[in-house]
Write a structure and sequence with these properties.
By secondary structure, the chain is of the alpha+beta class. It has helices at residues 19-37, 62-68, 74-89, 94-113, 118-139, 148-163, 172-184, 260-283, 297-305, 316-326, 379-401, 411-424, 430-442, 444-453, 457-469, 496-514; strands spanning 14-17, 47-50, 56-59, 141-142, 195-201, 209-211, 213-217, 231-233, 236-240, 288-291, 309-311, 343-344, 347-353, 356-362, 370-376, 404-407, 475-478, 483-486, 493-495, 518-521.
């Protein structure tokens, strides 16, 4: 007699399991890795993504691309997450981390297909990752921090290496200096939000400048601002969160008056309140008044008559950065503006940058902040420059905190690959195959660098394997000469922490994806029939 079929899950639930499910997940991750594969390295291409609002983004930053791709496959989302985590933790190496994860999965696919239990593969990968991380720590080169010049050189080299794979590669020396200057301005904690980035379209990239202090775009001003001075030496700065303009009465306010005098006194009261506030501000001795809320035309002209400068509706972040740089504190009332709540700086000026007017505060006493003003032709181009500089800033911060560097350009990956391959020959059992598979997977970075530059990858990888076997620790791909060279001497440097994070994250993602053997997708509520709109390709279905 036939057993009746037992239905456990709701009608329309999609579930697939076992080896085919793991293989399908691996394939989905491969296509994510393919999306960013060509963006690696100095010869990498850029991607143009048009989002649902029709805005176009040009980028070759792995995390930016993956964030803007709307990926629905649950396993493939893991790769997006590791790219984001790499971006948040070290700022650069987002493409590398996705490529490594994709390649680890690709190398483990044949084992899974031959019914090796995923846990065995996972165990071997974890072991190999630990070995690789240990090896990076052993061979990374410490740089002396006490020698200011040498330390600065190290930071510039790291910034230049990061920028060499970006759109602004031609100006990498110019920007590397600028980024290092910017990070040097900060205090020990190196807070990222203290580096402001302002974008002004027009001009050439080289017109970009670093202001050692705060700069922000001239805010919306009322009549009377032309009469104000545009330059002050050592002004006191009042930071307010107060509205300095006449308020129109609310529609439903009702005031009953018997005679004209009473009406007049009501009108006067309002003016009196405003003038009192203005008077307090003037008496405090402040020369520059910044407020988060609007400053109306009466106030603007009042200040202009008394040789003061004011700006209302200053964006929150700019006000906070001015506060950090110039001292003082943000006041919500105009009463008792004593000298201890006012900020000060050496020089305040308003200058023209491109088509915009900018207010600059320089020579701040507590200057732990700076502002980069980026110039460039097209808007997308400036935005990509900003993303590239963000990566470089993060790398310089990391290199300041951890002074260990390794050679980039595929050198460290080849060395780890050789190390793991040698190690795998000393052990027996299935682990030997898995560890040598991971060793092979690490070669994807130099291979992809060659592919993107149009070199003969097989030939160059053979040369690299040979030179690493002969003990050349740092030989990597030389993009300029289509050959191999010592990348440490060629100053292609990266902080060791970038590589450690990339390999650990990629390996963790791989283990996570391999350990999932079933996807159960509940039908969307609303009674989607099986095969209805809720059951697309991709989610859980083998692709």
């Amino acid at each position: 007699m036939m057993q009746p079929q037992i239905i456990l899950l709701k009608e329309g639930t999609d579930s697939s399991q076992g080896v085919p499910q793991i293989v399908s997940n691996i394939n989905a991750c491969q296509s994510v890795a393919d999306a960013v594969r060509t963006t690696l390295g100095p010869r990498g291409m850029d991607k143009l993504i048009i989002n649902d609002q029709g805005k176009s983004i040009i980028s070759n930053d792995g995390a930016t691309i993956l964030k803007n791709l709307d990926i629905v496959h649950p396993a493939a989302k893991t790769l997006v997450d590791i790219a984001k985590s790499q971006d948040a933790e070290v700022g650069d190496g987002t493409t590398s981390v996705v490529l490594l994860a994709g390649e680890f999965l690709k190398q483990s696919k044949p084992f899974i297909e031959e019914n090796v239990h995923p846990q065995i593969v996972i165990r071997a990968f974890r072991k190999a990752t630990d070995l690789a991380v240990q090896r990076i720590k052993e061979i990374s080169v410490k740089v002396k921090k006490d020698d200011k010049g040498e330390h600065r050189e190290l930071l510039e080299k790291c910034a230049a290496t990061t920028l060499s794979s970006k759109l602004v590669a031609h100006q990498k020396d110019f920007f590397a200096k600028m980024v290092v200057d910017a990070v040097m301005h900060l205090d020990e904690l190196l807070p990222l939000n203290m580096i402001g980035v302002k974008k002004v379209t027009g001009g050439a990239l080289e017109d970009s400048m670093l202001v050692a202090g705060v700069a922000f775009k001239k805010t919306f001003s009322y009549a009377g601002f032309e009469m104000q001075r545009k330059q002050y030496e050592k002004p006191l700065i009042a930071l307010l969160n107060v509205e300095l303009e006449l308020k129109a009465e609310k529609e439903n306010a009702e005031v009953r008056v018997d005679n004209v005098q009473e009406y007049q006194s009501i009108v006067d009261a309002e003016w009196k309140i405003l003038y009192e506030k203005l008077d307090h501000v003037h008496k405090s001795g402040a020369k520059v008044v910044l407020s988060k809320l609007p400053i109306g035309d009466v106030a603007t002209q009042y200040f202009a008559d008394r040789d003061m400068f004011c700006a209302g509706r200053v964006p929150d972040e700019d006000l906070k950065r001015t506060l950090k740089a110039c001292g003082g504190s943000i006041q919500t009332t105009c009463q008792n503006l004593a000298s201890n709540v006012l900020g000060s700086c050496e020089k305040f000026e308003e200058i023209q940058i491109g088509g915009e007017r900018y207010n600059l505060f320089t020579g701040c006493p507590q200057a732990k902040t700076c502002t980069m003003i980026l110039r460039g032709g097209a808007e997308q181009f400036i935005e990509e420059t900003e993303r590239s500089l963000h990566d470089a800033i993060m790398i310089v911060r990391r290199a300041m905190k951890n002074d260990a560097v390794v050679a980039g350009g595929g050198a460290i990956e080849m060395e780890l690959s050789k190390y793991l391959r040698d190690y795998s020959r000393t052990i027996a059992g299935k682990e030997q195959l898995m560890i040598s598979a991971m060793a092979k997977a690490l070669e994807i970075i130099p291979r992809q660098l060659c592919d993107n530059a149009g070199f003969d990858a097989t030939n160059i990888l053979n040369k690299l394997r040979q030179s690493h076997a002969e003990g050349a620790l740092w030989s990597g791909v030389n993009i300029m000469k289509e050959d191999i060279c010592d990348n440490f001497e060629g100053f292609v440097w990266e902080p060791a922490v970038v590589k450690i994070n990339a390999i650990t994250a990629a390996s963790e993602a791989t283990c996570l994806i391999l350990s999932v053997d079933e996807t159960i997708k509940n039908p969307k509520s609303g009674g989607d029939a099986p095969g209805g709109p809720g059951m697309g390709r991709g989610r859980g279905r083998p692709m």
